[in-house]
Amino acid sequence: MAKRPDRSVPGIVVVDKPSGLTSHDVVARMRKLAHTRKVGHAGTLDPMATGVLILGIGKATRLLTWITGHEKAYTATIRFGATTLSDDAQGELLETYGCVSLNEGELEFAMEELRGEIDQLPSRVSAKKIAGKRAYELVRAGADVELATQKITVHRLERVSPVRHTVLNGPDGPIDVVDLDIEVECSSGTYVRAIARDLGKAVGCGAHLTALRRTRVGLFTLKDAKPLADLEAQRKNQSDTQHDPQPAPGLIPLADAVRMLFPALVLDAAEAQRFAHGQAPARPVEEENLAGGSCNEQIIGAFNASGELLGLLRVHKGRLSTLTVFQGAE
After folding, report:
1. How far apart are the C-alpha atoms of 127 and 109, rounded to whole Å?
2. Which of 6, 16, 46, 244 is catalytic?
3. Is 11-70+220-253's fold the same as 262-325's?
4. For every one of its 330 residues, what pLDDT tens digit does the chain have, with 9 covering 90 and above?
C-alpha cells in the first residue's frame, strides 16, 4: 500500500499543557486537531506539571531537536518536611520528617550551592534509560535504580514567596510541613524536582515538589501558549475540504517559526537550486552579519529571494553545511 501523503500544514503550536496529562497525551490530541500522525513535542513535562509545551506539526518536527535544547524557566512549589519516591506529589511518601520552619540562612546557602553549573542526579522516577528501559519502569517494578549524574546549569534559582505552614496527611496522621515558591531558569535536561529533593536534603528535613509550571522555552513564553481546551474548541469551528486542509489551531507556520528561532540567509537562484539537492552554498558567512533569530546563532534558515523557506543550514567558522531541506519533502 502506498504511503499516505502528509497533507497537514507544517508549523509549531505552543500549548499551555494542563495538569493530569502526559506530554504524549497532548501530542495524541494534537494529531486529531492537525489531521496528521506527524506530531512531536520539544521537552517532556511530567503529568503533574503545566505550562509551555511546544509541538511540531508535519515537517516542523525537524525543528524540535534544536528547540528542545533551549533554556527553560519554571515556577514551582516545594514542600519541606517529607520525601517521595518521584520527588513530587505524585509519588508515594517515603520519609516524613516534618517541618515547622526554615532557617533562611541555611536555605540561601543550600540554594547557592545549586546555582551555576552543577552535577545533578536525576530523579529515579524519570524517563532516563538504563539498559534500554525507562528508569520509572524499573523503579515501579521494584528494581534498585542507579542513575549517573549529569552536567546542568541553573542560571537562576530564587525564592519568590514567604514560607507557608500547612499540614500533610501522612500514613500515621497529620504532619507539619512548610511550602515555598521558587523560580528557576535552567539548561535543558534539568530536573526541578531534583532541585527540590536536594534542597530538602541540604536543610535536613526532606522535600518534594507539589506544583510545577513551565513558563518559558527559549523565546516562547506563557503569553504565546494556548490552553489545549481552547485549541480544541477553535477546531470545532473550522472545516476541512479534501484538498484544502485547515492549519491546526494556534499554528505558527513553519517559515515564520524558523524566522523566529534562527537567523536568516537569502540564497540566490543558483544556490537555491543546488540547495534543493542538499548542497550548501559555498560562500563564506560571518555569523554577526546574519539577520534575525534569537535562540541559536549556529543554525540558520535558508530562504529564496521570494521569502520561501528552503531548509536549515549550520554555520561554523564561516563555512556552511546543510542540515535539512524542507522544500519538496514530506
Report:
1. 30
2. 46
3. no
4. 445 666 789 999 999 999 999 999 999 999 999 989 999 999 889 999 999 999 999 999 999 988 988 999 999 999 999 999 899 999 889 999 999 999 999 999 999 999 999 999 988 766 665 655 665 555 565 566 677 889 999 999 999 999 999 999 988 899 999 999 999 999 999 999 999 999 999 999 999 999 999 999 999 999 999 999 999 998 887 655 545 667 899 999 999 999 999 999 999 999 999 999 999 998 877 654 555 544 444 889 999 999 999 999 998 877 899 999 987 544
**How far, in Å, CA of 261 to CA of 67, rounded?**
8
3-state helix, strand, coil in the chain (%, to 5): 25, 35, 40
In the 8-state DSSP scheme, what is residue 291? Answer: B
The residue extents of the domains of the chain are 11-70+220-253, 72-217, 262-325
167 - beta bridge partners? Answer: 176
CATH fold for the domain made of 262-325: 2.30.130
Identify whether the C-beta of residue 74 lies closer than 8 Å to the C-beta of residue 51. Answer: yes
Domain 11-70+220-253 has CATH 3.40.50.300: no
| Catalytic residue flag (residue 46) | yes
Alpha helices, H only, the chain:
23-34, 64-68, 104-113, 135-140, 192-203, 228-236, 254-261, 269-275
Give me the half-sphere count of Cα atoms (radius 13 Å) on the Cβ side of residue 327. 17
The terminus-to-terminus CA distance of the chain in angstroms comes to 17
Length of the chain equals 330
Helix (H, G, I), strand (E, B) or coil at 314: strand
Q: Domain 72-217 in CATH: superfamily?
A: Pseudouridine synthase (3.30.2350.10)
Burial class (CB in 10 A: 0-12, 13-18, 19+), 105: exposed
Find, among 94, 258, 261, 76, the residue nearest to 185 by Cα. Answer: 76
**Which residue do the cell numbers 546557602 mark?**
109
* Closest by CA position to 90, among listed 143, 150, 19: 19
CB 30, CB 21: distance < 8 Å: no
